[in-house]
TrEMBL record:
It catalyses: 3-(methylsulfanyl)propanoate + ATP + CoA = 3-(methylsulfanyl)propanoyl-CoA + AMP + diphosphate. InterPro entries: AMP-bd_C, AMP-bd_C_sf, AMP-binding_CS, AMP-dep_synth/lig_dom, ANL_N_sf. Belongs to the ATP-dependent AMP-binding enzyme family. This is 3-methylmercaptopropionyl-CoA ligase. The keyword Cell division does not apply. It comes from Alsobacter sp. KACC 23698. Transmembrane segments: none annotated. GO terms for molecular function: ligase activity. Its EC number is 6.2.1.44. Keywords: Fatty acid metabolism, Ligase, Lipid metabolism. Pfam families: AMP-binding, AMP-binding_C.
Length: 542
C-alpha cells in the first residue's frame, strides 16, 4: 500500500517561489561588477528569473540543454541559475580559475549552448571563443551602457536581452530527478569530470544544511556566500539562503581581505562561508588595521583543512564561532559539519579547539564509513584511519557521460579519496588525501596535521608538507614555508616550535622557504606541482 500524500516534486524553482511568497521583501544585496552596491528583493529575483527562463526558451533552449555561467556571486548570477533550472535546462558553472585549456575542454564536453559571463571575463573568452563552437550566444551580465565592444558571437547585454520578455511564463514541470546543474571537478589526473546535480538532490542538500546543526539559517540571518557559485554549488547557499528566507549578500569579484571586511561590516553579515585562503586574507587585514568584526557570528570553513591558528584567532580575538566543514563536488558538496553536540558541550579552550580541528559529523542524508584497502569497515575510535566512503541522495553515482566508469563499489559506496578517522561521537577527521599521505617506514604521517601545526608559528603565512623519497624510510616529510611579509623565520625555530607537539618520527626532516605556494582552481594547495618542483630535492642527511 502506498501513502496517500500529494506528489510534489522537489524542484529548484519552488525555492524561489517560496522565498518570493514568504520573504518577498527580503533583499539580495550585491557588490556589482560595475562597482556600486545593488539591492533587489526575492520577489523581484523571482520575476527576473522567470524572464530568464522565458527568454532562454525563445532562444531555443530546451529541457536538458546546458547553459554555462562564468560569473562571480551577484544577483544576476542567482537569477540565471533559477531561470535556467526552471526551464529544465542545466546550469553549468565554469570556474574561471581553471586553465584556459580546461575551460575549453569542459565547455566542449558539456556542449554548452549559451554562455552567461561577467564583464571581467570578456577578454578571456574572446581569446578562446573560436575553440568553443557549441556556444551560440554570449550574454554579458551587465547593461548596455557597460557593454564593451566585443567580437563575441551574438553578444548582448543581459539587461537588454531580459527586457525583451514580459515574465509571463510558467515554470516547466518535470520529474524531480531531472538534471539541474553541472559542475566539473578539477581532478589532479586526467580531464575534469562533470558532476550532475538533480533538482531533488539540490533541494534535499539545501534542506540538510539549514538546521542549527549546520548553517543554522533563518529569516533573521544575513548570509554571505564568499564561496563562489562556481565552486561546488556555493555549498548550497544559493538554495538554502532563499529557502530559509535569509537576507543574502553577494560579494562580487573582490575577495581580498579589505573588500571582504568592508562588505561584512557595512552589510552586517551574520553568517559567511569560504575556503581558508579567503580567511587568511581577512585575518591578515584585521591584524594590520586593528579593526574589529562587529556583526559576524558564524564562519564556515572548508574546502581544505581549517588551520587551528585560524579557528583560535577568529574565536579568541573576534568572538566569531568557527565551524569546520568538509565535502566535495561529488557530494553537492557538504558531507560533514563540526557542530558541537551537547555531550561535548563542556569542552573548553584547547580541548574544544581539538574538537573543532575535526571536519565534523555527517548530517542526516549523508552516510559515512571508513574502510581498509580490502573494504573491511574500520572502528570509530578516533585513531584507526582508513579510506572514507559515503552514500546519500546528494552524492554522485556516476560522472557526466560515464567518464571514469563505475564510481561506486558493489554496496553503493563512493570512495572519497580521503583518508580519515571517525571517533566514538561520530566526528570525522581527515588525515589526508589518500595520495598526499606520507608513507614513512610502513606508517603514515598526516601532511595536514604538520601543516596545521606549522601555521601556528607567528612568522608563517602558509605551509605545505610533501613526502620526499628517502633511502631508508621510503618517504619523509619536507616542510615548505611561505614566511609572512617582513618575517624571517629559520629552520631551527620552526622545528623547535613543533617539537613535543607531535610524535618524534613525524618531525619534518627539513624546512625550505619559498615566496609562494601554488593553488588549484578551488583554492587547495597543489601538492602535485609542489612534488614536481621538489623532485630533485634530497634531504641533507640522506
Ligand atoms: P572539491 O571537490 O574540489 O571541493 O575537493 C574535495 C576535496 O577537498 C575533499 O575530498 C578533501 O580532500 C578536500 N577537503 C574539503 N574540505 C576539507 C576540509 N575541511 N579539510 C580537509 N580537506 C578538505
Amino acid at each position: 500500500m502506498l501513502g496517500l500524500m500529494q506528489d510534489w516534486p522537489l524542484l529548484i524553482h519552488r525555492i524561489i517561489d517560496h522565498a518570493a511568497k514568504q520573504h518577498g521583501q527580503r533583499q539580495v544585496i550585491s557588490r556589482s561588477i560595475e562597482g556600486p552596491m545593488h539591492s533587489i528583493s526575492y520577489g523581484e529575483i523571482r520575476q527576473r528569473s522567470m524572464k530568464v527562463a522565458q527568454r532562454l526558451s525563445r532562444d531555443g533552449i530546451r529541457l536538458g540543454d546546458r547553459v554555462a555561467t562564468l560569473a562571480w556571486n551577484t544577483w544576476r548570477h542567482l537569477e540565471c541559475w533559477y531561470g535556467i533550472a526552471g526551464l529544465g535546462a542545466i546550469y553549468h558553472t565554469v570556474n574561471p580559475r581553471l586553465f584556459e585549456e580546461q575551460i575549453i575542454y569542459i565547455v566542449n564536453h558539456a556542449e554548452d549552448r549559451i554562455l552567461f559571463l561577467d564583464l571581467t571575463f570578456v577578454p578571456m573568452i574572446e581569446k578562446i571563443a573560436a575553440r568553443i563552437p557549441t556556444v551560440e550566444r554570449f550574454i554579458v551580465l551587465t547593461d548596455s551602457a557597460h557593454l564593451p565592444a566585443t567580437s563575441l558571437k551574438n553578444a548582448v547585454a543581459y539587461e537588454d536581452w531580459l527586457a525583451e520578455c514580459d515574465g509571463d511564463f510558467r515554470w516547466a514541470n518535470f520529474d524531480e530527478n531531472t538534471a539541474a546543474g553541472l559542475c566539473y571537478t578539477s581532478g589532479t589526473t586526467g580531464n575534469p569530470k562533470g558532476v550532475v546535480y538533480s533538482h531533488r538532490s539540490n533541494v534535499l542538500h539545501a534542506m540538510m544544511l539549514i538546521p542549527k546543526e549546520a548553517f543554522g539559517l533563518s529569516p533573521g540571518d544575513v548570509v554571505m556566500p564568499v564561496v563562489p557559485l562556481f565552486h561546488a554549488n556555493s555549498w548550497s547557499l544559493a538554495f538554502s539562503g532563499p529557502m530559509s528566507g535569509s537576507t543574502m549578500v553577494m560579494p562580487g569579484a573582490k575577495l581580498d581581505g579589505a573588500s571582504v571586511y568592508d562588505i561584512l561590516e557595512t552589510q552586517k553579515v551574520s553568517v559567511t562561508a569560504a575556503v581558508p585562503t579567503v580567511w587568511l586574507g581577512l585575518l591578515a587585514y584585521l591584524e594590520q588595521t586593528g579593526k574589529p568584526l562587529s556583526h559576524l557570528k558564524r564562519v564556515f570553513i572548508g574546502g581544505s583543512a581549517c588551520p587551528r591558528a585560524m579557528t583560535e584567532k577568529f574565536e579568541r580575538n573576534y568572538g566569531v564561532n568557527v565551524i569546520h566543514a568538509w565535502g566535495m563536488t561529488e557530494m553537492s558538496p557538504v558531507g560533514s559539519v563540526c557542530f558541537v553536540k551537547p555531550e561535548l558541550g563542556e569542552l573548553r579552550d584547547d580541548a574544544l579547539y581539538d574538537l573543532k580541528m575535526k571536519q565534523g559529523y555527517a548530517p542526516f542524508m549523508v552516510e559515512m564509513k571508513i574502510a581498509n584497502d580490502k573494504g573491511d569497515e574500520l572502528p570509530w575510535d578516533g585513531k584507526t584511519f582508513g579510506r572514507l566512503k559515503v552514500k546519500g541522495p546528494a552524492v554522485a553515482k556516476s560522472y557526466f557521460r560515464g567518464e571514469g566508469g563505475q564510481i561506486l563499489d558493489e554496496d553503493g559506496w563512493f570512495d572519497t579519496g580521503d583518508v580519515a578517522t571517525i571517533d566514538a561521537y561520530g566526528y570525522m577527521q581527515i588525515t589526508d588525501r589518500a595520495k598526499d599521505v606520507i608513507k614513512s617506514g610502513g606508517e603514515w604521517i598526516s601532511s595536514i596535521d604538520l601543516e596545521n601545526l606549522a601555521l601556528g608559528h607567528p612568522d608563517v603565512a602558509e605551509a605545505a608538507v610533501i613526502g620526499v623519497a628517502h633511502p631508508k624510510w621510503d618517504e619523509r616529510p619536507l616542510l615548505i614555508i611561505v614566511p609572512k611579509p617582513n618575517a624571517n623565520p629559520d629552520k631551527d625555530s620552526l622545528l623547535a616550535f613543533m617539537q613535543g607537539k607531535i610524535a618524534k618520527w613525524w618531525m619534518p626532516d627539513d624546512v625550505v622557504f619559498v615566496p609562494d605556494i601554488p593553488h588549484t582552481a578551488t583554492g587547495k594547495i597543489q601538492k602535485m606541482e609542489l612534488r614536481e618542483r621538489f623532485k630533485e630535492y634530497r634531504f641533507p642527511a640522506a
